[in-house]
Amino acid sequence: MPVAISLSLAITFASLGDILLSKGMKSVGEAKIRKFRDIPPLLRVVFTHRIVLTGVICMAFYFSAYMTALVWTDVSVANPLTALSYVLATWGGQCFHTRESRQDAMGRSMSYHSGSSFG
Asked: Residues 29-57, buried b or exposed e (16+ Cβ, 10 A)?
């Protein structure tokens, strides 16, 4: 039972974090880095953006829940189950109207299928 709860939380936080990071980074805009001194202002903009910060926090919760699940089960069990987060992130992105390119969707699909084939 603790494994199921921990993996459910990991799946939820991973997909929510992906959605929020995608939405936040798209609202920040394209990064134009020409010189090293262009990086600190960009980092300041990114890390003061509320949606991006919430996405980073969700990913930290994902990592904690995933590590907790690995205490009770093998990675060969936990990893294929967390592949569901890719499906949920794609579905959630469509629900929250985050535009995803065909290449991104294909990458998620390939990642999901390759992860589930090893389980």
From this structure: eeeeeeeeeeeeeeeeeeeebebbebbbe
